[in-house]
Amino acid sequence: MALEHADPGQPWNVGPLGDALQDSQSSALFKSEQLEVIRLVMLSGKTLPRHKVPGAITIQCIEGVLVVETQGRQRRLLAGQLLYLPGNEMHAVTAEQDSSALLTIVLGD
Q1: Which CATH architecture has domain 24-106?
Q2: For the whole model, what pTM was predicted?
């Protein structure tokens, strides 16, 4: 199934999902040659295993609590906090609570 994308110029709600969180899925908001923006939805206990992407990323926690393992440390990301990782940085993400986040990935120069 293809992820839904926003049309250029289309406003997109990235506020907390609240009660709808458990029934929501991750969705790509848009993807260009240089940048991809994804609303990441992770239920409590779910993990994205260790991986890396070529470009820099940011993870902005919108609601819940995410634990990001990187550089041999675990960093808790609370609602309203943003984490930056350079390209090719190995990392894993675990939802400590039902959570959603805004994920940006730099794809090219």
Answers
A1: Sandwich (2.60)
A2: 0.89
